[in-house]
Amino acid sequence: MCEALKTQYQVNEEIGRGRFGTIFRCFHPLSNEPYACKVIDKSLLADSTDRECLQNEPKFMTLLSPHPNILQIFDVFEDDDYLSIVMDLCQPHTLFDRIVNGPISETQAAVLIKSLLEGLAHCHRMGVAHRDIKPDNVLFDSADNLKLADFGSAEWFGDGSTMSGVVGTPYYVAPEVVMGREYDEKVDVWSCGVILYIMLAGIPPFYGDSAAEIFEAVVRANLRFPSRIFRNVSPAAKDLLRKMICRDPSRRFSAEQALRHPWILSAGDTAQLT
After folding, report:
1. Among 6, 143, 155, 226, fewest CB within 10 Å belongs to which?
2. Is 59 labeled as ligand-binding?
3. What residues does ATP bind to (predicted)?
């Protein structure tokens, strides 16, 4: 752990652990505020990809801060052995924990997906694609504000360039990524659409028994709304899903377009849309 970190913050108990490091609760004596501190052990970084992810996260989080729906970074300390990032202190439960036990109401889903799209639209305006949008990377602070986190796979496209490389998580990754094509920031909108589908259905739209089978289903992109699952879901919600989980990226909504959709603007109140 960096000595400079310990001179400015009081580092307290461990609150989480990841592949490359440990997250501690810490306290800033001057501001009297609690924070989270991610301490990354550089000796665990096996290859250049890992090292690039390590450098990406603080770089992109600093560029994107502050925004109410992006995890904010406050300090970075680095020495030869460790990188320490001081960030917003969030609840231990992620969006995954909130939706893993089955569908939630349209009004709940609309509030959550709007906050996620607000954060995402900000990223895209700043020229950053997240590339690994999934419920595990969506956190909540003590006031229950949604915070998009984990920018280790993020990429800069602000000069109008396209991106490449298979990055992401099987259930949520867009078909153009799986097919090895060049792609743009709309891969993030696809992933958000998949999250919204899971919120409303309790199951993912494309699935299989292995990563290969899931990828095959994603590439086919045969989006269905089984009546036994979707019988109580509004036509407006299904319309938005079709526009976000659209196989053709040129016809897929941007984050800004999704935010202007009637279902989002009505906060999922289907009575307003009839």
Report:
1. 143
2. no
3. 38
Q: Per residue in 50-104, pLDDT tens?
A: 777 777 888 999 999 999 999 999 999 998 888 999 999 999 999 999 999 889 9
Q: Which residues contact 205 (CB under 8 A, 6 or more apart)?
A: 194, 197, 198, 223, 224, 245
Residue whose pair of structure tokens reads 């602000």 in the numeric block: 158
Total number of residues shown for the chain: 274
* Contact predicate 20/41, CB 8 Å: yes
User: Rounded to two decimals, what is the model's pTM?
Assistant: 0.93
| φ and ψ of 128, to 5 deg | -120, 130
CATH entry, 9-87, from 1.20.1440.20, 3.40.50.12780, 3.30.200.20, 3.40.1000.10: 3.30.200.20
Angle between helices 106-125 and 186-201 (to 10 degrees): 170
- How far does Cα 46 stand from its chain's mean position? 24
Dist. CA 102–CA 204, nearest whole Å:
11
Using an 8 Å Cβ cutoff, are 188 and 134 in contact? no
Q: Which residue in 88, 132, 150, 188 is the catalytic one?
A: 132
**3 backbone φψ class: left, alpha, beta (φ>0; ψ -120 to 50):** alpha
132 is catalytic: yes
